[in-house]
């Protein structure tokens, strides 16, 4: 599985379960950004 699988399969399932867009954004944007910035 790769990143595309997560975006196309996992995220829609999480949305159906009620996970907010803000949380999904945090998982796929903010988390990696913090990791690579050394936060």
Total count of domains: 1
Largest sheet: none
Structural class: mainly alpha
Total strand segments? 0
Q: Helix segment count?
A: 2
- Write down the overall geometry: flat
- Mean pLDDT score, rounded? 91
Helix share, percent: over 70%
Instruction: Spell the H/E element sequence.
Output: HH
Please compute the radius of gyration using only Cα atoms: 11 Å
Strand content: under 5%
Weakly predicted, low-confidence segments? none
Determine the N-to-C terminus distance: 27 Å
Descriptive keywords:
mainly alpha; 39 residues; 2 helices; 0% strand; 79% helix
How would you concisely characterize the structure shown here?
The protein has one domain (3-37). The protein is built from 2 helices and no strands.
Can you describe what's shown?
With 39 residues, the chain is mainly α. The protein has one domain. It contains 2 helices and no strands.
Detail the topology: elements first, then pairings.
Blueprint: H1 3-16, H2 21-37
